[in-house]
Predict the 3D structure of the following.
Amino acid sequence: MARNPDADNAPAPKAVKTSTIEFDADKAKSFKVVGSRPPRPDGMDKVTGRARFGADMVMPGQLVGLILRSPHPHAVIVSIDTTEAEALSGVKSVITRDDFAENADHHDVLCNIMAREKALYEGHAVAAVSATSKAVARKALKLIKIDYQILPHVTDVDLAMAPDAPLLHADMITSGVSPVPTKPSNVAGRSEFGHGDVEAGFAQADVIIERDFKTAATHQGYIEPHACVANVGADGMSELWCCTQGHFHVRQVCASLLGIDVSRLRVTASEIGGGFGGKTTVFIEPVALALSRKAGRPVKIAMSRDEVFKASGPTASSSMNVKIGVTKDGRITAGEGEFRYQGGAFAGAPADFGAMSAFACYALDNVKTVAYDVVTNRPKGAAYRAPGAPMSVYAVESVIAELAGEIGMDPIELRLKNAAREGTKSSYGPKFGSCGLVETLEAARDHPHYSAPLGPNQGRGVASGFWFNFGGETCSTLNINADGTVAIAVGTPDIGGSRAAMCIMAAEELGIPYERVRTIVADTSSLGYNDTTEGSRVTFSSGMAVIKASRKAVTEMCNRAAMIWDIPAEAVTWEDGHAKPSGANAGDFEPMSLAEIAASASKTGGPIAGHHEYNADGAGVSFGTHIVDTEVDPETGRVDILRYTVVQDAGKAIHPDYVEGQFQGGAVQGIGWALNEEYIYGEDGRLQNAGFLDYRMPVASDLPMIDTVIVEVPNPGHPYGVRGVGETGIVPPLAAIANAVSAASGVRLTELPMSPPRVLKAIDDAKVAAQ
Amino acid sequence: MVQVTLSGTFQQVAGGISTLEIEAKNIRQLLGGLEKQCPELKSEIEKGIAVAINGTIYRDDWFQPIPEDSEVFIIPRLAGG
């Protein structure tokens, strides 16, 4: 047993042996459906308005639920008097903290969905009502009397870490620190990663650059606000309709918070109008259920946009220091970073993921990252595409660009020279298996965009990025219908085109046309537990479940054909959607189609189906490289995105349209994060811009066409080589745009967003300094 | 015996231990041995961790075999958006 965490304690280098090999290289050479671009199965519903989103469900006798929220960023809730509200005609139920029992398993979630001793941020729920109309519900909220004892607040991450900062939780002792602190603080946890000796590495460097960076909190900006309808019956049987990325998770948490058996709550996921990580937890769902239970009638709650900004889960803001050393010939000798993230009022800012991702693109002998998860008087953060990575990578990739300039090396060549590849010991520990960073860098270098001429006040930036990807608990069922069509049930809400991908993979395995397959997202009573749609996992994990369920159905169809032909099942093979004798010795029979086997299923043993359930492991990591051209107006500080190219490793693109859509979506959200989006807090601790007029997201007229290049380095952990693609696309843009703005304006901006006032100030400051 | 490396976060919790050897043929045995040798990690293991075996990351897979001479890392449990 070794002590003292120095890098030389690490195991000796070994060849990388992948534990989970699923990839079938021969099959990958002969795809017939995979890689095609058929119409999306949900497209017609969405363009005609037939698709039902969270707020579209109506149940008989449904009531309107509204939530009363704290106007104070930090206050003790001395008392709540609901007497007058309850007496108002039309009010059917009123709930407060007293309607939820303490819950050790989900303590922070409980405190977030309904404040207990303290309100911890402006917008924190403190009571809720259900009533026969919205007008009555609004009036009832005004009749609820709350006695607040206002406390000092803190919304900035660095101020929250100060010894004299207002303390949010008297029992918060920093984890990950030895010895364990004796006093509480706002630092929920400290994380550390790395290997080697960074001081020795910096001593070898010819050039060292150290910079401080800040990024603002941003919101996922999904168009559909959170909405749900809850119905708790007199017998305790409950149903919940909601827009969510993970209805099985919603069921688990809500059942626990309400103290009911999981089997008594059926959750159905509606169509979803965007999630991007922000719909991976619960906010209003337990409240609606509690109101319904008390009222004995269905209750619908739909957040306003103001509530979405103030009381759902934006991403963390950050304050960071990064130091990197490089030799004149472009070898990075050491990298070091400290990443301080505030994630709102409860622990869970993705600082550790930020620290793990920061240097993941590089093969480094000496690297150290430290992360702090800090609480502040802001809404509890939720996941947002590659949670934690865009900020830390922004800092690292900005310094890499500066270093390239200092040593006079092309920035892509510098990255290639130090790029992580198969067998590289990652900056967070394990060696990388098969991965495609080098391929994305080479494709970016060779892309016409990279050598296109630039005009005055224009600049080009490049950055790479990384995300882990994961699999998770997954199951799926595939039913062969009597007419030869196929119905698939998955438990992962479709937020990016996964139903089309499932249909393609089943069609590929079964050898039938795409149009013969339909996929639904089943409710929680129809399938075993499925992890949430997150972590870029669905096409990988639900896809593999569908492939394996298809293979089981094929085996059964071969059995049925063998019975009809009266030959051994082993003598039957499946080819192009038909059962066939495997050779001349097996007999002379006409191939039997899937439709023919399905038509006779009732006489050959009953329905034919395939099912697969498993822990999906083997999700391959994902790398991407972005190129962006910007133009900076030196008189106003406005930044225009002129041209943007995303190059990313998808392993295998099942439906390339959707893969390209994920690349483009990540880039666009990154553009917003880089240039305009930010949560702006006043001195009073209240959010100043809780609406799309003041919270500036990119719109179509702000953007060029986002070009895409799909790189395909197969993931050995998937039969078709699939890697998740949903998250990596948002990691490089912050740095790529910062590098482009720097090249265009001649000044290095180290704080996001690079809004016109901030860019203009940086240009003016540089002019003054030059004089 | 499997040589296991703790990521820095867990090293701190485990009082500075960075690597240790555990008799384990699968992840369940690995976690049991880890908890036995480093009781300070019990709450971290209960909250959820991830195990990387030769670069492949596993979240909840007790019976995943650990081949001889594998590279094994204990890292934070991954999530996503």
